[in-house]
Amino acid sequence: MPEFLPEVLPAVEIGWRLGRQFWGQGYGSEAAHAVLEFALQDRGLDRVVAITHTGNRASENIMRKLGMVAERETSHPVFGLPLRVYAIDLTEYQA
Ligand SMILES: CC(C)(COP(=O)(O)OP(=O)(O)OC[C@H]1O[C@@H](n2cnc3c(N)ncnc32)[C@H](O)[C@@H]1OP(=O)(O)O)[C@@H](O)C(=O)NCCC(=O)NCCS
């Protein structure tokens, strides 16, 4: 639950962070796909969100490749940085 951003609650968030030496090799995309599949198919959630700093191109590329759609522009309640909220519903998901 992304409790730092009450305006999107209730929601289940997926996210990713890799050590810098592992960037750019497709691991982020592969891991994100596996997590989304687990959330929607194994756990039976009907909706998942992912939240990124606006302009984090690698992360936004991953979200879009997963079929997630940008649906909200906002800012971090404490730090003020621009955030973009992506989401996908089970009905839109194609494994
Ligand atoms: C975001 C993160 C997990 C991406 O992992 P990764 O393994 O490098 O990602 P991938 O190699 O699967 O690449 C994902 C996509 O972004 C693109 N990409 C990768 N690095 C990029 C960069 N620096 N600038 C622009 N695009 C980039 C890739 O080309 C790929 O897109 P494509 O499939 O259309 O070619 C990794 O960069 C990271 O841990 N960053 C720090 C933490 C962070 O920002 N987490 C996200 C918080 S929302």
Index terms:
Aminopeptidase, alpha+beta, 95 residues, globular, 2 helices, binds coenzyme A, 3-stranded antiparallel beta sheet
Task: Give a quick precis of the structure.
By secondary structure, the chain is of the alpha+beta class. 26% of the residues lie in helices and 23% in strands.
Low-confidence stretches: none
Write down how many β-strands occur, each being a DSSP E stretch of 2 or more residues. 3
CATH architecture: 3-Layer(aba) Sandwich
Q: Any idea what the CATH superfamily is called?
A: Gcn5-related N-acetyltransferase (GNAT)
Shape: globular
Bound molecules: coenzyme A
The top-level CATH class is: Alpha Beta
Q: Mean of residue pLDDT?
A: 96
User: Measured on Cα atoms, how large is the radius of gyration?
Assistant: 13 Å
Strand-residue proportion: 15-25%
Head-to-tail CA distance between termini? 23 Å
User: Approximately how much helix is present in the residues?
Assistant: 25-40%
Task: Domain count, please report it.
Answer: 1
For the biggest sheet, the summary is: 3 strands, antiparallel
Annotated CATH topology: Aminopeptidase
Q: Which structural class do the helices and strands define?
A: alpha+beta
> Number of helical runs?
2
Which strand order spans the largest sheet, edge to edge or round the barrel?
1-3-2
N to C succession of SSEs: HEHEE
Explain how this protein is built.
The chain is an alpha+beta fold and 95 residues long. The protein has one domain: Aminopeptidase. It is 26% helix and 23% strand. The protein has helices at 27-42, 57-65, and strands at 47-53, 69-75, 82-89. It has a three-stranded antiparallel β-sheet. The protein starts with 26 loop residues before the first helix and ends in a 6-residue tail after the last strand. The relative contact order is 0.22. The model has no long low-confidence stretch (mean pLDDT 96). Bound molecules: coenzyme A (COA). Coenzyme A is lined by residues 15-18, 23-29, 52, 56-59, 61-62, 65.
